[in-house]
């Protein structure tokens, strides 16, 4: 009597690694580092597969394509940031007194800068996010729109209410300046230490957020140049 053939293992049922990390989580962790190092365009599924010790076919099975993998990564952490921002804004708006510009700016920055304390994977996302400005416009714009636009618009509206005389044009322009500034400060390139010859650094996250908040609040509350034009 012939023995029964061993059951074929389905590709989607691949077991977890010995340390308990699932195959999908392992792929995501490796891909986050590769995308952070090279950006979306230059990153290859071959390198991700080799470093994750899986086949390219398995990556396609789980995520559909390189773009699907990139979008999964970006939305996974980006949506967490956006949800936390909205929760902080909701808490501020629920208080009896309306929030100040400083409170709003601090709430907006906090979820992003918390990532500095959440390990190398979170910081890989920060670098990946900073690189998004250099990715194909269609992909980059859509991801920003889907992940961040809703909460960002709500903060713009709240800042208009908090700052007397801040019109819609100034509020939107200044928020874009704020986004560019905080993304640079998150990028990990400590130009402050270089320019100051080591006298000052960005090592202390609380100091970074405090000084950045000072700068951005001054920007949001400055008189409009259009008013005197």
UniProtKB/TrEMBL annotation:
GO terms for molecular function: DNA-binding transcription factor activity; transcription cis-regulatory region binding. Signal peptide: none annotated. Keywords: DNA-binding, Transcription, Transcription regulation. It holds the Pfam family TetR_N. Residues 1-22 are annotated as: Disordered. Residues 21-81 form the HTH tetR-type domain. It comes from the Bacteria. Residues 44-63 bind DNA. The keyword Nucleus does not apply. PANTHER family: HTH-TYPE TRANSCRIPTIONAL REGULATOR BETI, HTH-TYPE TRANSCRIPTIONAL REGULATOR RUTR. This is Transcriptional regulator, TetR family. It comes from Muricoccus roseus.
């Amino acid at each position: 009597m012939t023995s029964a053939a061993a059951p074929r293992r389905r590709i989607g049922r691949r077991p977890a690694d010995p340390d308990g990390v699932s195959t999908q989580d392992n792929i995501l962790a490796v891909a986050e580092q590769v995308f952070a190092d090279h950006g979306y365009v230059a990153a290859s599924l071959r390198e991700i597969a080799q470093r994750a010790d899986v086949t390219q076919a398995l990556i396609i099975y789980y995520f559909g394509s390189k773009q699907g993998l990139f979008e999964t990564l970006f939305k996974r952490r980006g949506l967490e940031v956006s949800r936390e921002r909205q929760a902080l804004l909701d808490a501020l708006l629920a208080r009896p007194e309306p929030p100040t510009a400083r409170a709003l700016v601090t709430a907006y920055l906090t979820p992003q800068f918390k990532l500095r304390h959440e390990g190398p994977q979170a910081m890989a996302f920060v670098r990946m996010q900073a690189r998004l400005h250099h990715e194909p416009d269609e992909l980059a714009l859509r991801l920003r729109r889907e992940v961040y636009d809703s909460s960002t618009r709500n903060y713009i509206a709240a800042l208009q209410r908090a700052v007397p005389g801040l019109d819609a044009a100034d509020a939107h322009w200044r928020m874009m300046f704020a986004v560019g500034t905080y993304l640079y400060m998150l990028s990990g390139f400590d130009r402050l230490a270089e320019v100051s010859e080591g006298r000052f650094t960005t090592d202390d996250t609380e100091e970074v957020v405090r000084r950045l908040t000072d700068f951005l609040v001054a920007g949001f509350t400055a008189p409009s140049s259009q008013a005197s034009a």
